UniProtKB/TrEMBL annotation:
Organism name: Oceanisphaera arctica
NCBIfam families hit by this protein: IV_pilin_GFxxxE
Family annotation (PROSITE patterns): PROKAR_NTER_METHYL
Protein name: MSHA biogenesis protein MshC
Domain of life of the source: Bacteria
InterPro entries in the record: N_methyl_site (IPR012902), Pilin-like (IPR045584)
SUPFAM superfamilies: Pili subunits
Length: 176
C-alpha cells in the first residue's frame, strides 16, 4: 500500500528554511512612521551614487560652459537635497522650492556634519578636460568658501532618524 504525504524530514526542512527566511527578512522590512525617512535616505544614497557614477564617466561633468556641467554635483540644504534634472541648469546653493531637480523637493528636517548648503562633487577635471584620478575613483569633494576641497573625514547627513554617510574614499551608505 502506497501512502501519500510528506516525510518528517521534509516537514522539518521546510520549517527550518521558513525560520531562517523569517529571521533574515523581517528585521529588514520597515514598518511604521519612519518608513518615509528610510525611503528618503535611500533616495539620497541613490542620488549620491548616480552623481558619483556620472562624475566617474563624463569629463564634461565639471567643465564650465559645457551642457552637462552640473551632473557631478549634489546640493543639500537644511530642508531639501537634489541634483539638476537635466544637468544643464545651474543648481544654486538654495535652489527654489519648485524646479527641475531630482531629489526631495518637499521641506523636511535635514542635519549634516558640515554647514549648509552642502555641495558635494565627486572629483575634478585636470588640464585638457580630462578626468582627474580622484574623479575616476569617485572620491568626494566638498565646496567650502567657494572652492572645492577633498573630504578628509566622513560626512554624515541625517534625515529624521536615518543617517547617510559619505566616506572619504567615496563609499556611500546608510548607517544601520
Amino acid at each position: 500500500m502506497k501512502s501519500s504525504g510528506f516525510t518528517l524530514i521534509e516537514l522539518l526542512a521546510v520549517l527550518v528554511l521558513l525560520g531562517i527566511l523569517t529571521a533574515v527578512a523581517l528585521p529588514r522590512l520597515s514598518f511604521g512612521p519612519d518608513i518615509e525617512q528610510r525611503l528618503n535616505a535611500d533616495r539620497l544614497v541613490s542620488l549620491l551614487r548616480l552623481t558619483q557614477l556620472r562624475a566617474m564617466n563624463d569629463p564634461d561633468a565639471f567643465t564650465l560652459n559645457q551642457p552637462l556641467n552640473q551632473c557631478g554635483r549634489l546640493v543639500i540644504t537644511s530642508a531639501r537635497f537634489g541634483i539638476a534634472e537635466n544637468c544643464d541648469n545651474a543648481l544654486a546653493d538654495s535652489y527654489p522650492p519648485q524646479g527641475p531637480l531630482l531629489g526631495i523637493n518637499q521641506p523636511q528636517a535635514i542635519g549634516a556634519t558640515e554647514t549648509f548648503p552642502v555641495i558635494i562633487q565627486f572629483g575634478t577635471t585636470v588640464s585638457g578636460g580630462l578626468l582627474s584620478e580622484d574623479a575616476w575613483l569617485g572620491r568626494p569633494y566638498i565646496e567650502q568658501a567657494g572652492s572645492l576641497v577633498r573630504m578628509t573625514s566622513p560626512v554624515d547627513i541625517t534625515l529624521g532618524g536615518v543617517t547617510v554617510r559619505i566616506e572619504t574614499e567615496g563609499y556611500i551608505h546608510a548607517l544601520p
